[in-house]
From TrEMBL:
GO molecular function: RNA binding; rRNA (adenine-N6,N6-)-dimethyltransferase activity
Keyword vocabulary terms for this entry: Methyltransferase, RNA-binding, S-adenosyl-L-methionine, Transferase
Boundaries of every Ribosomal RNA adenine methylase transferase N-terminal domain copy: 1-156
Organism: Kribbella steppae
Pfam families assigned: RrnaAD (PF00398)
PANTHER family: DIMETHYLADENOSINE TRANSFERASE, DIMETHYLADENOSINE TRANSFERASE-RELATED
PROSITE patterns named in the record: SAM_RNA_A_N6_MT
Organismal lineage: Bacteria, Bacillati, Actinomycetota, Actinomycetes, Propionibacteriales
The protein's name: 23S rRNA (Adenine-N6)-dimethyltransferase
UniProt similarity note: Belongs to the class I-like SAM-binding methyltransferase superfamily. rRNA adenine N(6)-methyltransferase family.
């Protein structure tokens, strides 16, 4: 969250919002948040938890996301199995994405930051991609089988 540098009033998507671990600090930073969550029970809990906050909860598949028509940022820890589909969607022509800070499987984040992802060369004209915080598996409960890292995208 600190590294993302979200400012008050910015529109931020939290994709795979879970129970709101990132949604809550985004609200504290003053963001207008769209929390996307596929699981119906978690989406309901998010709605209840953020009923009085500037949070819109959308029950949707991250791989099939409708993007905002105005500039937006993404701060998210999405499910690993939709990482590639989500990145392609965020970087598709016409996207108003300004920046993204995504917790991904480290190998996937490294591949994208090296420009070694399918069709990746296209977006290097428009975005800088780099590796941010490295997160060991023990940073999560329960620990996954792989390490993670934040893939940082910034529009040039
Ligand atoms: C890795 S957890 C992250 C939860 C929370 N953001 C956090 O940092 O603790 C991913 C979340 O994505 C949700 N999810 C799984 N598949 C999804 C999909 N296809 N679209 C949207 N959300 C999905 C899961 O239900 C889960 O809550």
């Amino acid at each position: 969250m600190d590294a993302a540098g979200v400012r008050p009033g910015e529109l931020v998507l939290d994709v795979g919002a879970g129970l709101g671990a990132l949604t809550a600090p985004l609200v504290r930073a003053g963001a207008q948040v769209v929390a996307v969550e596929l699981h119906p029970g978690r989406a309901d809990r998010l709605r209840r938890r953020f009923a009085d906050a500037p949070v819109t909860v959308v029950r949707a598949d991250a791989a099939d996301l409708r993007l905002p028509s105005r500039p937006f940022r993404v701060v998210s820890s999405p499910p690993y199995n939709v990482s590639t589909a989500l990145l392609k969607r965020l970087l598709a022509p016409g996207s108003r994405l300004v920046s993204a800070d995504l917790v991904l499987q480290r190998a996937v984040a490294n591949r994208w930051s090296r420009g070694d992802a399918p069709g990746a060369n296209r977006w290097y004209y428009h975005y800088d991609l780099s590796i941010g915080l490295r997160l060991p598996r023990k940073a999560f409960t329960p620990p996954p089988h792989v390490d993670s890292a934040v893939l940082v995208l910034r529009k040039r």
